[in-house]
Write a sequence for this structure.
């Protein structure tokens, strides 16, 4: 049994619901850290930043599921919905921190969305995720059929907008956000590598 | 114009007891204590408590040591600040390389509590120790043809890990118009809360221009040059659309990245709301006349 087979066998035994419960914890943990001085001198922006980053990391992890299966033989497909929903949840908390703890003033919030390009970009990315989160359930998959796949293609623009939002909000060209943007590009390029033609004869032999 | 404050923290409260100092500040504004404190306190009423020493020394932008806020406090120790000398040249009568001791000789070190507003929309209140820049400029003799002052930060890659990244062009440079440099509010800081400056705050000498965004207050200065033309400034070179030469704090001039209408007080905690940003960071009375007739949305 190869390593990837063993990993897959192990993963099959992992139930998803405890992972959902664990995935729900980080925002509360960060908030607690912010309350108790664990996020440094500026806890609001630290909270915003950590939640946004976690959301982006989970979005990228979601995009890594297919290449991981194809190139490493590791099958995380059972967890993909959870990864996507947790990413959406973290991004909601990120947005909520900005709205409720940071800006607070509805007029300024609207002005920021309209006038600051990085916020506009982030907001459009968030809006693209809303229908995806809303249809991440079995009933929607059945109901939408073929259109479900078409709809969920929206994840690509959503992730790229999230990564660009990160690049734009930093002063100057900083390395960290560019690494995330590069990770997105790599994950897309891996998808574009054509699959080798199926060789039927060897299958018979 | 005499712009001296005789009152220092040492007059008010024992060194090291910052908590007491803060209580006194809080009480002072209510008691009209500003009148005793002299022109500085009177002209610049600060209702806010000074930011804690810990926050001032652990939440910094000093990209030579990394772009993270904690990077300077983590890595700036590597910078050698002794010996230190400042090259003063250009349109001055007595150019040369001045040792730190020569720079400080005859300077009147006083304590001044200034607001400090970062372009990233966070702010602090900092009790600086230092002297007026104009005292140093007068010491070296400014020639009549000089119109600007250029400043340069130390650039020593082996001690400054952040300079390995090209996030900015090194060395960091800044500049002021001569009248801004000669303004009595403009100071060269040597300490905070009565302690010598820590490296992350720009030891051993840094500029403090309280009505401008923080990046104008250049740290760890190794060169001061008097010139007749506007000197280049680092953030302006990196992104001229976002960072102008003047970079005066101005809640009305929008920055494409951050709203400048309000700010977060560092150290105020997770439930604190933003406060309104003041024109010229609250120093309009003192400095607005420097910009009379200028379109501040063009010369931002």
């Amino acid at each position: 049994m190869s390593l990837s087979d063993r990993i897959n066998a192990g993963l099959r035994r992992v139930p998803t619901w405890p992972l959902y419960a664990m995935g729900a914890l980080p925002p509360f943990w960060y908030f607690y850290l912010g309350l108790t001085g664990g996020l440094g001198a500026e806890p609001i922006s630290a909270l915003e930043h950590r939640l946004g980053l976690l959301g982006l990391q989970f979005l990228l992890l979601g995009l890594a599921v297919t290449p991981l299966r194809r190139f490493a033989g590791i099958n995380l497909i059972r967890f993909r919905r959870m990864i996507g929903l947790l990413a959406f949840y973290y991004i909601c908390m990120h947005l909520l921190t900005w709205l409720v703890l940071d800006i607070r003033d509805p007029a300024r919030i609207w002005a920021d969305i309209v006038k600051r390009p990085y916020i506009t970009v982030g907001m459009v990315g968030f809006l693209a995720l809303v229908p995806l989160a809303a249809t991440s359930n079995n009933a929607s998959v059945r109901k939408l059929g073929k259109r479900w796949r078409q709809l969920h293609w929206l994840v690509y623009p959503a992730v790229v907008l999230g990564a660009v939002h990160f690049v734009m909000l930093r002063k100057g060209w900083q390395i960290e956000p560019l690494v995330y943007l590069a990770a997105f590009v790599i994950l897309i390029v891996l998808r574009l590598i054509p699959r080798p033609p199926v060789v039927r004869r060897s299958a018979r032999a | 114009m005499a712009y001296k404050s005789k009152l220092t923290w040492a007059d008010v409260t024992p060194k090291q007891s910052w908590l007491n100092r803060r209580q006194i500040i809080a009480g002072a504004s209510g008691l009209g204590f500003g009148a005793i404190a002299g022109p500085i306190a009177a002209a610049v009423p600060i209702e806010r408590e000074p930011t804690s020493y810990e926050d001032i020394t652990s939440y910094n932008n000093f990209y030579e040591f990394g772009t993270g806020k904690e990077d300077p406090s983590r890595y700036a120790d590597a910078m050698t600040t002794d010996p230190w000398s400042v090259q003063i040249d250009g349109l001055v009568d007595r150019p040369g390389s001045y040792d730190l001791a020569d720079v400080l000789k005859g300077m009147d070190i006083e304590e001044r509590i200034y607001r400090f507003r970062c372009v990233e929309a966070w702010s602090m209140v900092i009790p600086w120790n230092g002297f007026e820049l104009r005292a140093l400029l007068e010491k070296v003799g400014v020639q009549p043809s000089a119109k600007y002052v250029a400043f340069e930060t130390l650039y020593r890659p082996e001690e400054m890990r952040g300079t390995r990244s090209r996030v900015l062009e090194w060395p960091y440079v800044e500049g002021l118009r001569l009248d801004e440099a000669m303004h009595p509010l403009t100071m060269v800081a040597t300490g905070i809360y009565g302690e010598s400056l820590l490296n992350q705050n720009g030891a051993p000498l840094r500029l403090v221009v309280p009505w401008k965004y923080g990046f104008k207050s250049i740290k760890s200065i190794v060169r001061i040059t008097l010139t007749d033309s506007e000197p280049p400034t680092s953030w302006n070179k990196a992104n001229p659309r976002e960072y102008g030469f003047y970079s005066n704090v101005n809640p009305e001039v929008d920055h494409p990245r951050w709203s400048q209408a309000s700010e977060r007080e560092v150290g105020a905690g997770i439930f604190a709301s933003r406060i309104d940003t003041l024109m010229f960071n609250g120093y309009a009375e003192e400095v607005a006349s420097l910009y009379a007739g200028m379109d501040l949305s063009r010369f931002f």
About this structure: Residues 9-291 of chain B form a domain with the Sulfite Oxidase; Chain A, domain 2 fold (CATH 3.90.420.10). Residues 150 and 253 of chain B are 25 Å apart (CA to CA). The interface with chain A takes residues 54-55, 58-59, 63, 67, 69-70, 120, 122, 165-168, 235, 238-239, 254, 256-259, 261-262, 264, 266-267, 269-274 of chain B (CB under 8 Å).
